[in-house]
Amino acid sequence: MTLYPQLIIDALATVTYAGTKKSLVESGMVADTPAVSAPQQEGDPWKVKVVLEFPRDTDPFLKSTVKAAEAAIKYHCGKDVEVTIETEFKSKPRPDVEQLLPGVKNIIAVSSGKGGVGKSTVSANLAIALARLGYKVGLLDTDIFGPSMPKMFNVEDERPYAVKVDGRDLICPIEKYGVKLLSIGFFVSPTTATLWRGGMATSALKQLIADADWGELDYFILERAISISHCSRPCRLRAQLSCLPLSRWLWPMHERVSICIVMRKLMFPYLD
Q: Which are the contacts of 173, defined by CB distance < 8 A and separation ≥ 6?
């Protein structure tokens, strides 16, 4: 059987890309005309080279799409065909962990082993205080289950948008009181419980750190930086954060402050 580029394209047209619900050809993902090489001698296989262009290197459908494309080519052109599929990306790949946040001078992590000790309050006041002193400040609320920063900064109705920076699609943080702010609360409904565990929670936090346009910052504050309750792989996340130029850890007081907060809630009526 003689192979030619159009036959390969016809085979790829039968593969649906889950990201658009259209075929690879309709989605414009076949970057170049497929290269076809005839056998050099009897017994050698036909060789096919295809370049597929994905939106980004973290595309969740990348591996499955590549496998489906290879299977489609073998099905339509022969199982003995030697298929090579290369991938390209419209958006530049995410940099390595060691190269994240190149414009950030200092990172301050505000964390605790338990809830209700004032991490959000400390983080918000610290960020605004530094901004008032003239520093460039960013604040990341990493609380998956109960993000409170949007309410504390009175920006609950704001929604971050994407910007193109150096060939990458990045999230543009919300700015208030001179502080660049991102939170899971901007992306989930306040009336719906967020039941994220393991990989989903870890991936969300990594995206807010690595795929956001933080720009030049004097201080980058991480509120609740490594909560074990959020991620089933806390050691992996801790190792990734350890590669960042972490300047300080702030640990609010534990049991005594928590008890005081609970007692206040019991002694005073709830005011909406």
A: 138, 160, 180, 181, 182, 212, 213, 214
